[in-house]
Amino acid sequence: MAEGVTMTGRDGGANIGPIGDFDPVVILVRPQLAENIGTTARAMANGGLFHLRIVAPRDGWPQERAWYASSGADRILDAAQVFETVDDAVADLHRIFATCPRPRHVIKPVMTARGAAAELRVASNRGLRTGILFGPERAGLDNEDMARADTLVRYPLNPKFMSLNLAQAVLIMAYEWFLTEDMTPPRELMTNETHVATKGEMDNFMSHLIRDLDETNFLRNEQKRPGMVRNLRHFFTRGEVTEQELRTLHGVVSELSNARRNRS
Amino acid sequence: MAEGVTMTGRDGGANIGPIGDFDPVVILVRPQLAENIGTTARAMANGGLFHLRIVAPRDGWPQERAWYASSGADRILDAAQVFETVDDAVADLHRIFATCPRPRHVIKPVMTARGAAAELRVASNRGLRTGILFGPERAGLDNEDMARADTLVRYPLNPKFMSLNLAQAVLIMAYEWFLTEDMTPPRELMTNETHVATKGEMDNFMSHLIRDLDETNFLRNEQKRPGMVRNLRHFFTRGEVTEQELRTLHGVVSELSNARRNRS
Q1: Is B118 close to A72, i.e. CB distance below 8 A?
Q2: B198-253, pLDDT tens digit by residue?
Q3: I want to staple B133 with a disulfide (CB 3.0 to 4.6 A). Which of A166, A174, B98, B245 is the partner?
Q4: CA gap A127, A2 in Å, rounded
Q5: CB neighbour class for B258 (10 Å; exposed up to 12, middle 13-18, buried from 19)
Q6: Residues of chain B with pLDDT under 50
Q7: Which helix or strand (DSSP H or E) is residue A206 part of?
Q8: Nearest to B17 among A114, A160, A244 (CB)
Q9: Are B56 and B85 in contact (CB under 8 A)?
Q10: ipTM of the complex
């Protein structure tokens, strides 16, 4: 992804991401509906895949309906290459994966989408050109197509309900491709304008709270007092708290205390 | 997933998988198009999610078009529950996630789809009921909806092209949910009727090949012979080979040898 080429069209449209020369090529084999070619382009863009090849599209190419269905991923369609046979479409590539829900009578390595994505990334980093075959909407890839592939890809999905449409099959592969280089932590606190409170800021709030609770005699039972204070401390440190939230909590405590003082 | 209840409809339709009481509930908030509710049900079935709730569907409920679009996941639609507000839809649940492409001005934990799926599985195993909110097609969840969630979920995707349709957003979450308990190895050789050859079977073939090559004098250079034999051995052990393929290779070697003998 580091080559610095970006996906802009002949007419200078929106930039939808950087393209790597060795990023995998999505190869649609004998697709039937132009809409599905368009939604495939959209799914590719979601995952940062930009090279599209089309083998023997049933209704010819180009087809305006594909562009309508692509939700703005038309740069991928503009650059798509069309071939008559799978052999032609893969001739300059080094390694071919073929998506295939239920391979039968085939002796071939089968990988998960996640496993295949990792291998595609390794190949790309080695400067090998790779391709992923997706079959036609109803029938899927035939045995001749699969014999052209080095490796089959089968997604782990509910075995009683495997049916995916073409764009969804492409989306899962594109998503896994994107994740191979994504560094997003599984969980992080979004704090926007504020920051996570320091322990000192939290301690300051706890002192305020305990002081006001002492004033009301809420903590008058000397034997239970340490445990009650500890429980409150546990509660307020269960998750991260931001400085802004502490300010609000200071305000809430002061407001309740003042209201009480005014009443008495 | 172990409760043994299966997803069959009132009229005894197809079984599309086992339902866990504590599996996450997919909650569509103010969905606009019935088709999208149907394709959502399909995506849920793909990943083994079966509990659907719908909050204030724009065009009312039920809507026949949802069933047409569900590709056979109609059991999920049959069992879908409709609520007027998000508060009503989440009242009996313990933990809420909300999918949200670009949260702003929110102080909230944000997880990846994969991180959230892992937490959903842990919660389910602890007997907690969880829900995942998905917003309306165009606007997404509003700030009030997000304030009901414990955690936001943002998928790592191409930042220049994040747009997903509703069913695709649900599919990625359902796929990650399915993977949390999936044990498929990243790569395995599909051998079907045959089996991976033993080292003895491979050695037997190598002996056959070398014997026939010796007969032709292909290996006559005594100095180069060990390296050439080793290279052939490297080639034939690069990937797994099946017993059936070895039989074919034995046949190929014999056939070529015999043809040669007959010519000479």
Answers
A1: no
A2: 999 999 999 999 999 999 889 999 999 999 999 999 999 888 899 999 999 999 99
A3: B98
A4: 12
A5: exposed
A6: 1-5, 8-12
A7: helix A199-215
A8: A160
A9: yes
A10: 0.89
Nearest to A169 by CA among A185, A187, A155: A155
Q: Which two tokens stand for residue A228?
A: 């009650």
Query: Angle at Cα A185 formed by Cα A180 and Cα A187, nearest 5°?
Result: 135
Q: CA-CA distance, A231 to A13, in Å (whole number)?
A: 58
Tokens read off for B165: 């349709």
Chain A, chain B: beta-carbon pairs less than 8 Å apart:
169
Structure-token pair, residue B18:
């086992």
Locate B77 and state its tokens: 């639609």
Answer positive or negative: Cα dihedral of A154, A157, A161, A166.
negative
Domains in chain B: boundaries: 5-179, 199-263
Separation of alpha carbons A56 and A38, rounded Å: 16
Distance in Å from the first CA to the final CA of chain B: 69
| Residue A105 pLDDT grade (very low, low, confident, very high; cuts 50, 70, 90) | confident
Q: Give the three-state DSSP class for A121.
A: helix
- Among A61-65, A174-178, B215-219, the minimum mean pLDDT is found in B215-219
Query: How far is the C-alpha of A60 from the C-alpha of A58, rounded, in Å?
Result: 6
Residue B165: count of CB within 10 angstroms of its CB: 20
Report the residue from B42, B111, B190 with minimal CB separation from A186.
Answer: B111
Give the residue on A whose Cα is nearest the Cα of B117: A186
Which of A163, A178, A193 has its CB closest to that of B158?
Answer: A178
Q: For residue B171, what is the enclosing H or E element? A: helix B166-179
pLDDT tens-digit series, residues A114-166:
999 999 999 999 999 999 999 999 889 998 999 999 999 999 999 999 889 99
Q: Tell me which amino acid residue B264 is.
A: S
Residues of chain B contacting A47 with CB distance shorter than 8 Å: 157-158
Distance from CA of A174 to the nearest CA of B (A): 9
Question: What local confidence, expressed as pLDDT, does residue A1 receive?
Answer: 32
Contact criterion met (CB below 8 Å) for A116 and A76: no
pLDDT for the residue B11:
46
Instruction: Give domain A5-179's CATH architecture.
Output: 3-Layer(aba) Sandwich (3.40)
Q: Answer yes or no: are the C-beta atoms of A108 and A143 closer than 8 Å.
A: no
Q: Which residue of B has its CA nearest to A181?
A: B156
